[in-house]
Amino acid sequence: MAYSSSSSEKTNALEVGNDSDFKCHVFSSSTELLEKLQEKCSSVGKQPYPAMYSSIYGGIILDPAMMVIPIDDHMVHRGHGVFDTAIIFNGYLYELDVHLDRFLRSASKSKITSPFPQSTLRSILIQLTAVSKCKKGTLRFWLTAGPGDFLLSPAGCPTSAFYAVVIDDDFVQCKEGVKVITSTIPIKPPQFATMKNVNYLPNVLSKMEAEEKGAFASIWVDEEGYIAEGPNVNVAFITYDKELVLPFFDNILTGCTAKRLLELAPKLVEKGSLKGVKTKNLSVEEGKGAAEMMYVGSTLPLLPIITWDEQPIGDGRVGELTMLLSNLLWDDMEAGPETVRTPVTYV
């Protein structure tokens, strides 16, 4: 994009290429740059990010134009960072503590030390949600090796950094089935798959591959031929014997929602709707031969899968037990115990 320039601005312009008419504008002051950023942000109808926290700034930011991360942060140029996401639902943070526990486990595996204890991180996230005034959306947060330089080692980064942002998102319960494919993108090795780090290029390519083939997303299969997970979700099955089965978490990310599903599903066993709940190694043949199939993830919380590699799952329709399980999770989000729902006092 070429900006109109005064004669004085043209003096500071950088010409790109000998035969190009494109001129790079040189911002003469931080005020001028901020005005340009605010102009771009104001062109968006509804701001999707009502508030951000940055330990680099040392506080909460409400101006979208200032919601930035330093270019020399080790997460930006080396992918040295971890993240997690909690749901904001009807003014409560759902499973905040479970996500924070996993977050700090991922940080430990990535050799990143938090600048704050867990209790302070928790307090920051609750305050951020309160200031945002968002009552339905997601809360995403990162720990990074911090800014410092562009070298491979983070030795030149004086301190780690903590960032968080509230994302206004009016998600609804998923009731329509989707199609999936088997991903041809290599699955991450267990060391990296079991930590929620920002190195998501395989996940992105896997999702793009599915979309290019007219599917919603993909399924990863490990080197031994066992079903692993989706690009950013877990996967679960209902057998014709009415058992809920999820793959072992040994070599994949331990999903917070998947674990909660395993805790809640026995309620359906007690009612006689399900006969059992377990985790096990599942072959692709077993998965495709299941009666029902679903993705499991925070913002879904369950998404029915009706076709895998053009082959119908069960009768090719959304399964009754899938929706009963979805209702269990949705009810838990709406009115679950205080152990999973953290109230937010909005300001």
Quick overview of this protein structure:
The chain is of the alpha+beta class and 347 residues long.
| Rg for CA atoms | 23 Å
Output mean pLDDT.
93
**Alpha-beta classification:** alpha+beta
Please work out how many helical segments DSSP would assign: 11
Helix share, percent: 25-40%
Level-1 CATH class name of the largest domain: Alpha Beta
Low-confidence stretches: 1-17
Summarize the main sheet. Answer: 8 strands, mixed
Query: How many separate domains make up the residues?
Result: 2
By CATH, the architecture of the largest domain is named Alpha-Beta Barrel
Q: What best-fitting shape do the alpha-carbon axes yield?
A: globular
Count of DSSP strands: 17
- The CATH superfamily of the largest domain bears the name D-amino Acid Aminotransferase, subunit A, domain 2
SSE order, one letter for each helix or strand: HEEHEEHEEHHEEEHHEEEHHEHEEEHE
Structure characterization notes:
It comes from Quillaja saponaria (Soap bark tree). This is D-amino-acid transaminase, chloroplastic-like. It holds the Pfam family Aminotran_4. With 347 residues, the protein is of the alpha+beta class. It has 2 domains: 51-168, D-amino Acid Aminotransferase, Chain A, domain 1 (2-Layer Sandwich), CATH 3.30.470; 178-335, D-amino Acid Aminotransferase, subunit A, domain 2 (D-amino Acid Aminotransferase, Chain A, domain 2). The chain contains 11 helices and 17 strands. It has helices at residues 7-11, 30-42, 74-78, 96-109, 118-132, 190-193, 201-212, 256-264, 266-270, 284-288, 320-335, and strands at residues 14-15, 23-24, 51-54, 59-61, 81-89, 92-94, 136-144, 161-168, 178-182, 217-219, 234-238, 243-246, 276-279, 292-296, 302-308, 311-312, 341-343. The strands form 3 sheets. Strands 9, 10, 11, 12, 13, 14, 15 and 16 form an 8-stranded mixed sheet that branches. Strand 15 (302-308) and strand 16 form a beta hairpin. The model is unreliable at 1-17 (pLDDT under 50).
